[in-house]
Design goal:
This protein is mainly α. The protein has 4 helices and no strands.
Length: 82
Amino acid sequence: MQVDHHPLAVDFPEFKEQIHLLKSNDAHFSKLFEEYGVADKAVNRAENGVEHLSDAALEELKKVRIHLKDQLFQLLQASAKA
């Protein structure tokens, strides 16, 4: 079974415009966004059997991804209120 990526614009469609603006205008957001993309792709490759990771390594990578996603979501919420 193919496992899909989790791009922020799909997971948070209500923030699609803010995502674009923050990627262009906020270096911190842009850096976290890039790190999230790398982590998401790595999880996806492991879950689809393209790369082999131990269960512990995959779980740690998923924790990194969710932590980045939480940080990005907080920044999106803050920018929406501003």
